[in-house]
Design a protein that fits this description.
This protein has one helix spanning 4-19; strands spanning 24-30, 35-40, 46-50, 56-58. The chain is of the alpha+beta class and 60 residues long. It has one domain (4-58). A four-stranded antiparallel β-sheet has the order 1-2-3-4, with helices on one face. The termini are far apart.
C-alpha cells in the first residue's frame, strides 16, 4: 500500500498536471519497488516516480 506521504505528493502532482492541462496517461503503484509511477502529457513526455518518503523525480 502507498504511504501517506506518497498519497499527499501524488495528489499534489496530479492536481498540478491537471492545472497545466496535461492528461495523465498512466498511474501505477509498484508493490515490488514501493513506488508510484505517473506518466502524463499529450505525447507521454512527462514521467514521475514517487518514493516511499514522498520525494519525487522525473525519469527518462
Amino acid at each position: 500500500m502507498p504511504t501517506q506521504q506518497q498519497l499527499v505528493t501524488v495528489a499534489f502532482l496530479c492536481q498540478l498536471l491537471s492545472n497545466l492541462y496535461q492528461p495523465i496517461q498512466v498511474f501505477r503503484y509498484d508493490q515490488g519497488f514501493k513506488t508510484i509511477y505517473v506518466q502524463a502529457g499529450v505525447n507521454d513526455e512527462i514521467a514521475l516516480v514517487i518514493d516511499e518518503d514522498g520525494s519525487w523525480e522525473f525519469v527518462l
